[in-house]
Fold this protein.
Amino acid sequence: MKKKAILTLAFLLLLTIGWVGFKGIRRLNKKAAIEKKQGDLSLMLNQINQADTDITPTTILIFFNSECEHCQEEIKEVSKNIGELKKYQLFLISYEPENEALAFLSRYNLSNFYLKSSPEKVISAFEGSVPQTLIYKKGKLIQHFKGEVKIETILDLL
């Protein structure tokens, strides 16, 4: 009887270890696929339905949510420095309904930089929380910030 209980526990332990390992590998593969897409601007824009966009200029993608305090602060700083940022291709992307995202951006006079896409496509292109800022030069990712980033840091990279 004792032997049967030990074998059952060993089997359950191995099953649990296998399941955890499988889930971990699956999560890593998903993350690697997203990072590969994010590394190439044309793949990224294709993912969010903007394949016809010119990828040669320096491009800034900011993934935001209007209810996020860090996003609000970053968008406010972008608005204050829009004169400097207009030299570059700037896209502001959200998974929120379009009317909510545009209402938020219009408060900062940034609605012209909104990049329309479906929530599903945006969520599949960005892994993790908001805000996220991706900077591309000649179509290749040079920097990916997860979380709020100071505008000076962005400008220094451009």
